[in-house]
Amino acid sequence: MDIYTLHQGTAPLLVSLPHDGTAVPDAIAARLTDSARRVPDTDWHVSRLYEVARELGASILVPHHSRYVVDLNRPPDDTSLYPGQNTTGLCPVVQFSGEPVYMAGAEPDAAEIAARVDTWWRPYHDTLDAELQRIRGEHGRAVLWEGHSIRGTLPFLFDGALPELNLGTAAGASCTPALQQRLAAVLEAQGDYSHVVNGRFKGGYITRHYGDPQIGVEAVQLEIAQHAYMDEDRFEYLPAKAERLQRVIRALLVAALA
To answer: Quick one: CA dihedral 149, 154, 157, 161, positive or negative?
Structure first.
């Protein structure tokens, strides 16, 4: 199986969907708990949500494997992105529910984690970096859009219910103030979804690592509460709800390209 799919577009926009994949190699799947084999922490259906990006000429990068194999949005040294808060790691051993990913004693050791980084993590990041360089070379700038989603209520990770749209710019470090202001204006103008800028989710490794406004690469993460477009219990895509949400996503992407 290929590691990722890259669609090369014509606009100065790259949409990265690092948690869209669901594949787990048999040798790893055999060691997972029953609940983890359902890969519940997938960013379900985000590639379908972001079909609107293709219409705008965006490049789109989508992995095939689950974050349980390796989390593409974590640093390769597994430094915590949210020190002092519950989170999951580079090769997660705990689910967002707090349950274990692996059967007792079957967790990956350091050598296996390093091998997974070489096999799956580095090729994705090499391609992401090369595509950003291609886009910046052609357009003089590049916008990296990190598309994510998560269950709206997860006590292990955050208190209460998550706002439906969570925009992250590494507290303003990964993009220009002008871009953040345009995106915030889109969120303020719509009335269908609760939203926050740089709340619990400020952007993961990809947003923080690649966003460098001084060289013309701006990065933004959008974390969506999954109940806004799907059934969180059955992992089922709900087209009518999703279509309404896609109108807001499209408006955000248009603002990012402005």
So the answer is: positive
